[in-house]
Amino acid sequence: MNLNIKTSYMTNNPCYKKGASRKAIGLQLHTIGAAQGSAEAIRDSMNRSDYEAAVNAIVDSEEEGKVLLTLPDGMRSWADGGYGNQSLYTFEIGESDAMKYVPGTAEYTVTDEKRFKEDILRGYRNAVAFCAAKCRENGWDPLSKLGSGLYTISSHDEGRRAGLSTAHVDPTHIWDRLGLTMDQFRKDVKTAMENASAPGGQGDEAPSGSGKSWYKVQCGAFKSEEKAKAMAAELKKKGVDTFVFQDGGWYKVQCGAYEKKTNADRQKKQLEELGYEAFVTV
After folding, report:
1. What pLDDT is stored for residue 213 in this prediction?
2. Are residues 110 and 57 both part of a single domain?
3. Ranges for the SPOR domain (predicted)?
4. Residues 167 and 233 in one domain
């Protein structure tokens, strides 16, 4: 999957204004708890001076591959009232407008089963791809456990059951309806990482370890988002896994992240042999 990652910080949110820092050691998954799948709409609802919650990213469930970065990676979020804020990179997944919540509860009715299923599964796929990218970037194993007893990727509900987070049940209340589980999600992330690490994919050796610098292979930077997405699609057809992210006023196409520079150089050479100009950044 080609990720389309945009930076859209919630500068009006009090969490952003406070700007407290933390070092993330894993990922915490949330679903929004509202009949909304658009990352932009969710971001806009949070980007207010009176909104007492914030996450590092929002995964769209209406558009394939779309993710908004809403707080800097190193900024502490206000997402779970406890351990997640202190130690984890937190993100929301959109749900669906084909549902209706009972106010003040996690109970809901579905108004369009087909569209609901499509939205939730799309959000799930997007989250798998995003978590695979974050795990590659940070050298995290999604199937390993942290000192807290939670997995490297955990949900708000898992934090609640461990006594580490507030009393929310996401995403269980949504995913149960479609037979989705966090155990399967973590396995899907691991598979996505392994597939991207096969020859011709994101790299032939996935990054390992943590707290290290990564050598990132970039293949183009564009002022036009459409041009960046077109290059990513072109590379994907040639067997190169890519994602697009926004950095300042540029849309950049990234093709890999590696612990060892020799592996990054090898990916760069493969791209050059395909006729593309590529370079390695740290």
Report:
1. 62
2. yes
3. 209-282
4. no
